[in-house]
Amino acid sequence: MNILLPKPVKTSISKPFWDGIAKGRFSLQFCDDCSRAIFYPRGHCPHCFSDQLTWKEASGQGRLKTWSIIYRTGHPAWQEKTPYVVGVVELADGPSMLTHLLIEPSEITYQMQVSVCFTTIEGEVLPFFKAKGEETP
Ligand SMILES: [Zn+2]
Q1: Of all helices (H) and strands (E), which one includes residue 19?
Q2: Is there a domain that residue 80 lies in?
Q3: Is 91 domain-assigned?
Q4: How far away, in angstroms, is 73 Cα from ligand 1 center?
Q5: I want to staple 33 with a disulfide (CB 3.0 to 4.6 A). Which of 50, 74, 87, 136 is the partner?
Q6: How far is CA 75 from the centre of its chain?
Q7: Per-residue pLDDT tens for 105-123?
Q8: How many angstroms is it from 128 CA to the middle of ligand 1?
Q9: Which residues span the domain enclosing 122?
């Protein structure tokens, strides 16, 4: 049986993020009042509670804070992709992001530099990350 992968849930607040990803642009909300970048998409800045947020293109670069190799998935559709790696990337713009890593487990090191890698799976473009400077897998 072919089980479809779960799709990202796109809300009115997160839609600009996903629209950008679909076009190969990595954007974040920036607070007009305290200038900090935020992720995940929200209606208010988590630092100063301002609702004046503006979408801007971000670097798509970061450093790996932590990771885990997945052998048993939370959703059955991902099981055939195992083992794969998920990790938390501290984005150069400030916030951290949980993401899928396109890096061999033996190559992973703490604080390694990574960059966004737009990856299409079942017609959906997803913001995975790869080692900085590596070719797209
Ligand atoms: Zn703010």
Answers
A1: helix 15-22
A2: yes
A3: yes
A4: 36
A5: 50
A6: 18
A7: 999 999 999 999 999 998 9
A8: 27
A9: 59-132
